[in-house]
Amino acid sequence: MSMNYKLSALAGKIIAIDGPAGSGKSTTARLLASKIGYTFLDTGAMYRVVAWVALKKGLSVDDGESLEMISRQVEISFEMDGDINRVFLFGKEMTDEIRTPEVTKAVSPVSVHAGVRTALVKRQREMAKNGSVVAEGRDTTSVVFPDADLKIYLDASIEERARRRLLELARKGISTTFEELKREIYDRDKRDSKRENSPLTKTADAVVIDTTSLTIEAQVERIIRLIKARILNA
To answer: pTM here?
Structure first.
């Protein structure tokens, strides 16, 4: 199904995709949005921006009050450039800066603070107020958009997720080990699912897709079939 057209039945809907790190949700959500002519809302990138600012300021990831202030003050915007979702902080591109291992390690402890999540969730809802959005993150189906028109939960084995992350970092010239990445992903899963505020969870009405053996293209096609069946009734 080539959905480079915008059907009236599809306009204004919200498709929410959740899942743990490395499940493929960011790439899948971005390509899906491109195919169906939707805006891609990368909620995880917003938390990464806050983490990056905190690191630059030398703040502790435990300083919830300062992190909340950052979350309320930063001006974050997105711009699709082909298949790339460019992230801007006060108009300056931060696409690569927020994807470093240092930011990746900081983003989970930064995101556990209730004040940070409240501030960013408010922004995310404002950005999606007109619909026609594919949103991805860790609480988009449960907290940010509980009434989304279609909810997807992507998952994959820790081994596969670590392998994907290793390849991603290698392409950027960043050296690490498979075992280290497995440990980091395990720890992040534990923090994200056990946190008090907006934990990573599979909602009862979300469709779970195991991406361990699926290509990104196959993941997108699987979701498009769900869109046809559940939104377009085709």
So the answer is: 0.86
